[in-house]
């Protein structure tokens, strides 16, 4: 099955600086890579995703890059703000004839220091 | 209106008891899921249902029995609760039949504590 590793487990950055979270996956058949943000006491919420036919995707201050050869993908948050503090999860999905399921990384607790 | 709502939010119970968690989505989605998040925040899928039919069962003990009376509801019943069942359980839904590229909408979680 798919295995997703995520680093770092915790990350603290000064407000206004950039944050980068990295994930690697094991199965080269994976072709969908979403990122979820989980705020305290809430369920995860999708913030950005990327498909395997794209190398980079950007949405305002958030960007995701994908390197299929190396089997890793990264989340980049620029101009960080206090409300970016949360736990972030990467995930990978393998096509499986309607039975696809996401395998999540272990999460990164991001703290933005005012 | 909450898109995916689950109850209760907190559940504290003794070992050996039986308990249920309920989930409802008002998004008109076809697929619903149960995920378990352990104390280290690790998220793992347990079950998924599409239009009331089970499509994913991730080797969860038989003590866990999901039930989907209709596509808007997916409940989770747990028999003979054990200490290791303590976790946060998330319900989620997606529009399609478990296809990739489908955005998951999560509920706010049920924190289960087994004493």
Radius of gyration of chain B: 13 Å
Unreliable residue runs of chain B: none
Rg of chain A, nearest Å: 14 Å
What is the residue-averaged pLDDT of chain B?
90
Helix-residue proportion of chain A:
under 10%
Gross morphology of chain B: globular
The most extensive interface, with participating residues per chain, is:
A-B, 27 and 25 residues
Instruction: Spell out the helices and strands of chain A N to C.
Output: EEEEEEEEEEE
* Main beta sheet strand tally, sense and closure of chain A: 6 strands, mixed
| Oligomeric nature of the chains | heterodimer
The total of beta strands of chain B comes to 11
The helical percent of chain B reads: under 10%
Fraction of residues in β-strands of chain A: over 45%
What fraction strand of chain B? over 45%
Tell me the series of helices and strands of chain B, N- to C-terminal. Answer: EEEEEEEEEEE
Distance between the termini of chain A: 41 Å
> What is the count of DSSP helices of chain A, taking H or I runs of 4+ residues?
0
Low-confidence runs of chain A: none
């Amino acid at each position: 099955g798919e295995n997703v590793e995520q680093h770092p487990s915790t990350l603290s950055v000064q407000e206004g600086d950039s944050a980068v979270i990295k994930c690697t996956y094991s199965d080269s058949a994976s072709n969908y890579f979403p990122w979820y943000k989980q705020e305290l006491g809430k369920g995860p919420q999708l913030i950005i995703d990327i498909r395997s036919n794209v190398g980079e995707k950007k949405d305002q201050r958030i960007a995701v890059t994908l390197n299929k050869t190396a089997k890793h993908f990264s989340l980049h948050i620029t101009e960080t703000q206090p409300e970016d503090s949360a736990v972030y999860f990467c995930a990978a999905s393998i096509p499986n004839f309607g039975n696809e399921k996401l395998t999540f990384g272990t999460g990164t607790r991001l703290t933005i220091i005012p | 209106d909450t898109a995916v709502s689950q109850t209760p939010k907190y559940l504290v119970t003794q070992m050996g008891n039986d308990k249920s968690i309920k989930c409802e989505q008002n998004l008109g989605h076809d697929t619903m899921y149960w995920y378990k998040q352990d104390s280290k925040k690790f998220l793992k899928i347990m079950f998924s249902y599409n239009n009331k039919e089970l499509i994913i069962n991730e080797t969860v003990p038989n003590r866990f029995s999901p039930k989907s009376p209709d596509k808007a509801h997916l409940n989770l019943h747990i028999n003979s609760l054990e200490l290791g069942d303590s976790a946060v359980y998330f319900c989620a839904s997606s529009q399609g039949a478990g296809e990739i590229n489908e955005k998951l909408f999560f509920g706010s979680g049920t924190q289960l504590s087994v004493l």
